[in-house]
Amino acid sequence: MTALSILDLVRVTETTDARGAIDNARDLARHAENWGYQRFWVAEHHNMAGIASAATSIVLSHIAAGTSTIRVGAGGIMLPNHAPIIIAEQFGTLARLYPGRIDLGLGRAPGTDQLTVRALRRTLTDADDFPRDVLELQAYFQPVQPGQRVQAVPAAGTDVPLWILGSSTYGAQLAAEFGLPYAFASHFAPDLLLPALQIYRARFKPSAQLARPHTMVGVNIVAAETDAAARRLATTQQMSFANIFRGARTLSQPPIDDIETYWTPIEKAQAGGMLARSIVGSPETVRDGLRALIAETGADELMIVSDVYDHRERLRSFELIAAAGSELATERAPGTRHAESIV
Question: Domain 1-160, what fold?
Fold first, then answer.
């Protein structure tokens, strides 16, 4: 059975401020827990007016406090922006507050522009230290060793599970070498999805955290009662991508009737490439799309983005997606192996 999880963008909209966006994320996580989603992640972004999760660990604490069983984590922390000990302290604290529920996904990109990287007091060359930083961070979560002079208090002994995130084959190779679960960002960079999964599975080395490969595939899904209604809701994300190409970091915008009146042919082509694996439609369309994606990728887990403007319609989208996933689960042939638990 392929698990379903959520990546929430914590969107600040034209009608919802940052506090509202964070509270909506918490409310969505509470519903997602009841609908059977396995994880609820948010991502680190800086200098983006439309995303309220820059202080990722603080947002995660707010979400975890409003839920009781769903796993909560970062998808991800952009490790080049931080000293590993700081991230260990933050996520070790989360693990003490919410034991057995915290995940830590790690990305190599800065998650922002070069000017903001400088404001973060980091440099783009820090990304070259990513493998070493992952190992350093992992060590902070292990029990304290004799003679260890630097500890990430209170992280030691929490064994927070790490994930490697990627949109190229680099992350796949690293995750395989370190024996960590791998999440591919095909919700915005789908081109190398299949080659990356193949490399990861072929080169995977078992580790203390994970005995065999575990793959997560990011996917945009917008569900509504009809295909037409879903396509209209999806224009919010399409406009967001068009605005990125224009260099505009705007708030999330309400859906429109005709996206062709908004973007240029070039923007349409650019956005179309990045959103190529999106599933948009009625419950039946979503179910068929999920089935096809799982069959193609063999993913153990799907990390779903449903970038819908109105909170109530976004809740409905995720509810319909969960129902479609449940229908697929009943189709699973007897004897099919369940995805291995990595927690």
Answer: TIM Barrel (3.20.20)
